[in-house]
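Hello Y.,

Per our agreement to keep a running log of every chain we model this quarter, I'm adding this entry. I've kept the format consistent with earlier entries: sequence first, then predicted structure.
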Amino acid sequence: MELTPQETITKHEQILRYIGALAVGSKISVRKIAKDVGVSEGTAYRAIKDAEASGLVATKERIGTVRIEPKARNNIDKLTFAEVVNIVDGAVLGGAEGLDKTLGKFVIGAMQLEAMVKYIDAGSLLIVGNRERAHATALELGAGVLITGGFGASPAVRKQADELALPIISSSYDTFTVASLINRAIYDRLIKKKILLVEDIMTPSGETDMLKGNMTVSDWNATVERTGHSRFPVVDEYHRLIGMVTSKDVVGAAPEERIDKVMTKNPITVGARTSVASAAHMMVWEGIEQLPVTDSARKLLGIISRQDVLKGMQFIQKQPQIGETIEDLILASFEEEREADGRIAFRGTITPQMTSSFGTVSEGVLTTLMSQASFRAIKLVKKGDLVLDSMSTFFLKPLQIDNEIVIRPQLIELSRKFGKVDVEVHHGASLVAKAILTAQLIDQM
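Predicted structure for the entry above:
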């Protein structure tokens, strides 16, 4: 009997498609989905959890699990009102249907109402105390309201918030504290936005050339001639990845030989939410030119190649600085200089933030400084992106707060694929730390 399109997908995929077709705001019930799709409640529950992980649904306090609009990655720096509630340990007084909306900015209402309205736009959040007129005016202008000091809202304002689907939130924290908490959350998201993920650069499965396991080497040859490529993922009838096939696999194989007999089975894969840096390290370490991207059920989502990784890294490096990581903050206090022999060195002072609970420099901080100095030494000779391969570190003497140190990396070996650096840390005339580091170079193949 020939399978219908509905029967050729798994129950798990059927549930995800069912959820994806629901209107934004629809409530998600394990029992209802199990009944509608014809699966067990356990299967429905697992699929709903996967949908939550992929951003299709979200669980909201006092509302339950609902279908939401997946947040585009270019809006990762925007907070939803629901997230603000969690950040400030708040209570929703009204407008709960608007919790999934994002806020573009927040306004602190420490001024007269007439002056305040100049700064309130639709989609903003007014942070204010027990000022009913300000609450109502902000809602009229399309903004949410965060009431500080533990105060509530009048019944009229709550009703207005419900009608406009604009949240009104109460927090016991003061205005300064909630503003600091929200600002910190936005700042953290800016850092996350800087981190490039596989899903940002992959070629989706709909645009990916692939083969089925029951196809033949003749089909592989025809696909090579049509596309100009020689590596393809192999999937089964449910679109699940079962292997990879390359020119090496088909050497000497008869034209009628099935692909699933010559392919490489159980290939290394990567998830869509994996960082590009991690994927690059995996590709270099394993000597892979192309990585399939799959979900938890091994369904093929797309592929990434070394060229994709390189383009992605080049793109992100051209973007303006958006948020600083711990590495950025550590390195910001060190100055790059040239010594008399022409070698590069980094000079700086140990700050309180760099120390451990014992008052001496943290080993992690010192390791970061040595590795980043080593990368800089390699990049002066050979352009490109680097991933750390191995590092042997020796901590010889403790460093105290306010100690001035000089980091001196010395390039001792460099090839097309990797570089090796001997790096030393000096405090005055004393050698205090030393490391031997090797780094893999990602170059275009």
